[in-house]
Amino acid sequence: MLYTHATIITVNSSREIILDGAILVQDNLIAAVDKTDALTKLHPSEVVVNLEGRIIIPGLISTHMHTAQTLLRGAADDLELVSWLCERIWVLQGNFTHEDGYAAARISIAEMLLTGTTCFLESMFADRYGFDGLCRAVEESGIRGCLGKIVMDSGKYAGDPKWAMHPGLVENREMSLLGALDMHKKWDKAANDRIRVWFGARTPGGVSDALYKEMTSISKTQGIPITMHCAEVAADRAFFKTLSHTPMSYCDSVGLLGPNTVLVHMVHLDDSDIAKLAETKTHVAHCPTSNSKLASGICRVPELLDSGVNVGLGTDGAPCNNTNDLLQEMKLAGIIHKAKSYDPTLVPAETVMEMATINGAKALGLDDSIGSLEVGKKADFVAIDMRYVHLQPYYSPVSAVVYCATGKDVDMVVVDGKIVVKSGKLTTMDEEEVWKEGEKRGHEVVKRARLTEKVKGRWPIR
After folding, report:
1. What residues contact residue 45 under an 8 Å CB cut-off, 6+ apart?
2. How much is the pTM?
3. Do the strands 29-35 and 117-125 form a parallel or antiparallel pair, or are they unpaired?
4. What is the rounded distance in angstroms from the CA atom of residue 333 to the CA atom of residue 359?
5. Which residue from 77, 166, 276, 435 has the highest number of Cβ atoms inside 10 Å of its Cβ?
6. DSSP 137
7. Which CATH architecture does the domain made up of 60-363 adopt?
8. Overall CATH class of domain 2-58+377-426
9. Mind telling me which residue stretches traverse the membrane in this protein (predicted)?
């Protein structure tokens, strides 16, 4: 298949942008990237897909999201964090069934594909959601998923007794760690290697030192990557202080740091933490919308990048973002650090594009196969239709994508060489069936949790 007449943002080592470019896909790999004229002459018998008026970018990579939480979109808006988590989100998630987890995975994946995300890192999928269903949803949809199975042995969070998990979510070592190992044996590298199974560790306070050390030891010997929320809120920082640690000195003490770990949020860091991240080549997932909406603070992304830390982007979950559209996340990532620093040159559009593509691929250990449009890499790419008044005129293709486009502008998505979105429509899933099932099951979860009246919002409904 030959995709022609597009502007191609390659994110290759030279960061080339090709005008009137083409991509040749053979099986699931990129066989050539060049000018349209050159490739059509070399491959006159190839089936052609004309993408004139589109910008092609590498498939977007979300390094942090919660698939289960899409059923809870808008169910916990404008609350402070303890109420948000302990009185809403954990209560709702503690009432999930396996069927709810499958429906949540499908609506999350459908939204991600439609908005240009071709690979995602699920951070912490609980046993009660049904991990098999999550894997089936990835397999059926055509997306790539790095799937973190929860690891925990305590229902606490940080050091505050008010931060207690709903009993329906509490797991022990056998259910969580050993369950994750079972899922790794069953699903890792399934679906033509589109599925990778990770450890999704709970935040410190929810995992004993002994279990962290056991998990990190297995991670190193078996090559199972780890993702974990860390230093998200001030309470996390205070908790580490009670242990006579900074966030990264604690993580280092239990073996969490290293190139196979993605730490999420990372808002409350000091200079020594940043230095330790750089030294250990630990990755960071930046979630600016979630951090802003929950008033957690702003991650020190410019300092992390200046220190050589690899930073990717994530949307987090729908209750603290309300969308899984990574293109919208890209815009905020390019703006928020300018406002904080009073420096408009920080985190330019090109850096944001790297964060959402090649940096994300590096964080997931997949940069040899995805994250840029180069010969020999997997054919994962997104075509954004620029033929609209809100996108014209433009002068820098990268700036236009980062600051102007949203998921609604995605025209085509290719993953592993297969077209999964065509003319803005899913080809592997029935969108209407997916959202209707998600709507039904989301309301059933809320009703089961007895929170119907509380999730309605502040103004009267009649």
Report:
1. none
2. 0.98
3. unpaired
4. 14
5. 276
6. H
7. Alpha-Beta Barrel (3.20)
8. mainly beta
9. none
